């Protein structure tokens, strides 16, 4: 065999240096209705992020259906202009630190579903460029705030306690009747003689 054929076969057998990217999100996330939720997404790339790096977030409702892209980042954030996430998405990412996170403001029960973070950083074309988070929003449990408890204590229990202590004090230590001096007589009192 010729030398060029041998070199060609060695080149094919040698491991190639493939650029790759790895995207990670939390598998599940739980929050209450009305909460602000951070959808974290981190990535590692063989190459430093450049202006060609892009981030896309998509959402598939819990009820099913195709995923819909609602957020895009390419040198700057492009939040949704319409749909259920309008004015409710904030970019929290920092590509230089491998962060592509967003924040969902004022979560609703309609936000239950799967959120997918996709990161592209050419020439990194292999690896795991997407990751999914299943978000579950539950109704907020009603709770008594400290201020409510303080008002109840101040308006009901405190006066009741003062009155109770006063009455117990009267029962234990009754007031002594002051006897009037016997020398004193009323001007309308009739005297004998």
Automatic annotation (TrEMBL):
Assigned keywords, A-Z: Disulfide bond, Glycoprotein, Immunoglobulin domain, Membrane, Signal, Transmembrane, Transmembrane helix
Ig-like domain: residues covered: 15-136
Membrane topology: Single-pass type I membrane protein
Cellular localisation: Membrane
Main location: membrane
GO cellular component, one term: plasma membrane
Keyword Glycoprotein listed: yes
Domain of life (superkingdom): Eukaryota
Membrane-spanning ranges: 149-172
Protein name: Ig-like domain-containing protein
Provenance organism: Mola mola
Higher taxonomy: Eukaryota, Metazoa, Chordata, Craniata, Vertebrata
